[in-house]
Amino acid sequence: MSKLEKKSLTGKLIVLAIFAVAMGYFEAAIVVYLRRLLYPEGFSFPLVPIDTELIIIELLRELATMIMLASVAVIAARKFWELFGVFVFIFGIWDIFYYVWLKATIGWPASLVDLDILFLIPIPWIGPVIAPVLISVLMIEVGFVLIRTYHRGNYFKPPLISWLCGILATGLILFSFMRDVDASLRQQMPQDYLYSLLATGLLLYVIGFVTAYRKSRSTTPTES
């Protein structure tokens, strides 16, 4: 890669990172307001009941956030896997800085094992802060590799084993977040989080991606 190409890639990554950091603050600010409204004594479990109108507004806000991140990816990339790389790169930075800004503004979380509401679709996801942070670190790395791969004119094509690893990993991690229906829907105290599911899912993601990356590098670059 020439110095000009490296400079171009670096500039692109910096701009994407700045956007993601700013989005993280935007998201954190909204959550600060929501917690002041719903948890005036400070956020804690069990969850408080929320009226249907507010739930719908919050669901649409989360959907709007995903659309905003995806829109930036569409603008910044041309090929599908390059677009996916941009999306997970900014998603990972956004999610990490969401917690950075919460810590900076309201001093929460106190630790990485504090439980949080991670997402609301289709039901509230509950898990320790370290779970989305670790997933985000992996997303940033994967996104960076994919962006750099396409910047160099190469391509990426996951084999079947990578797809299977990714699907199984996603299922395990989603189950770890949504299995505790009593806590998410019935205002009960959360069960212990199953870190084994998170660890297995992350490992499967790594195996699937590394396998796909090695296979793509060993194959003649013809765009898929």
Helix and strand topology:
Elements: H1 3-38, H2 52-76, H3 80-106, E1 115-119, E2 125-128, H4 130-151, H5 160-178, H6 181-185, H7 195-217
Antiparallel strand pairs: 1-2
Helix pairs in contact: 1-3, 2-3, 3-4, 4-7, 5-7
Description:
The chain has 224 residues and is mainly alpha-helical. Helix content is 70%, strand content 4%. It has seven helices and two strands; from the N terminus they run αααββαααα. The chain has a two-stranded antiparallel sheet with strand order 1-2. α3 packs antiparallel against α4 and α5 packs antiparallel against α7 (195-217). The longest helix is centred in the first third of the chain and has 36 residues, at 3-38.
- Low-confidence runs of at least 5 consecutive residues: none
What is the C-alpha radius of gyration, as a whole number of Å?
19 Å
Strand order of the largest sheet: 1-2
DSSP helix fraction: over 70%
Structural class: mainly alpha
Query: What form results from the Cα inertia axes?
Result: globular
Main beta sheet: 2 strands, antiparallel
Number of helices: 7
SSE topology string: HHHEEHHHH
Mean pLDDT: 92
Strand content: under 5%
Report how far the terminal alpha carbons are from each other.
Answer: 22 Å
Number of strands: 2
